[in-house]
Amino acid sequence: MNTSATKLTSKIFAFSHLLSIFNTTNSCVTARKLISYSDYQPLHVIDGAGLYQTTLINDNQAYLQMIDLSKIQIDQLVGEVANIGFDQGKYYHGEGNYYSLFFKMKLFSEITKEYKQLYKNQIFSIINCAFFEQYKPSTQLSFPIKVNGKIITAGNSPYGLISKPKHEFYSQVCLKALVWDKKHVYITDYEPVSGAPLNQTNVQNAIVTYQYSDHPAKVLAHNQVNRYHVIGILNRDGVNCDELLLILTVKGATLDAAAE
């Protein structure tokens, strides 16, 4: 981060980590302690973005990024393609009808160095944002991603809305899509058979994943304490489309606590 920068870029990575999309209308959280905006202390604030910190009830830290899409550019970055994965895609236009590429894993330090050389001091933040299926040098991603108008993978997760998921819970799960352009961001239901909304030409950038309450870490692993990103959106003026992207990172919390 650089406090002298005036036009900064927020990076959202399309590889190798956990992300859960949530919206508050579907939250099943039992409130224990509601954290207000005043509980967040600013760490770095510029025109269009801010990083804030608060302490959770277990003394772990939570970090909140607020990104104004009308002022901040978001890029999706992936590793090089190692294998095509022909007809292995499961979540775009039906099972087996699209590719599920294998992307090479890259160290976070490598990515940081490359993009600091490219953008110099204009980078606000870099995060890992899409989770992977195999712990190998190259891996398929779980769900579809659209980058600059192109579907780059149809995903390959066994825990989703497919004919024979690894757990029966996922035979009825509703996946979510985070969609954004140069001014707005929104979260909507994702339809694997049609590919909507990723199949729409006006949708240029999008990632697909679970609502937080459907994430395997909650459903299958008993809502264990871990490190998570949860993402939400906020309509700042109450009139136009949603324009603020909220990214919360917790070091040691359950998904329920992170969403709360």
TrEMBL record:
<protein>
    <submittedName>
        <fullName>Uncharacterized protein</fullName>
    </submittedName>
</protein>
